[in-house]
Request: fold
Amino acid sequence: MRLAPKLSCVTALAVAAVAAASTAASATDLAASQKVDGSITVAGSTCTWADATASADPPSGLTIDHASVNSGVSCTGGASATLNSDSTLAFDDAAGTATSDLIDITVNQSIVSCSYTATNVGWSRDGSTRTYLNQTFTASKSSGSFLCPSSVSLEPGSASLSFH
Reply:
């Protein structure tokens, strides 16, 4: 069972997680609809969502509603994911970066359930768009089966968030 790559995939999605269906608005365009799309690909597995609700538009600080992510998240390979709490992002528009306060996610694969958390996850803006790519981060196991890896790490750019 290739559990670790799927866990990595879904863990990063929570930050997001994340922009297969990105709409690249100008960084100076503040007429966005307070929506965010996400995507993450790890070891051939992909998780995505579209049109989750954000409380504001970047560069204002915002919160991504976990229920709106959960209602549309889809993963390949038979995995499922549940974001356990909202994620708040703070932006430094001049530097082209953002930081997520907390990612708290549960991943299910077959009969195995694993929960992970990550704090202070960094994101870098992709040029002048409102798409942000993850910086390297590690999420630690907070609960779950002994079959769950104790932590999962994501390489830079393997996840993205696209605000529109």
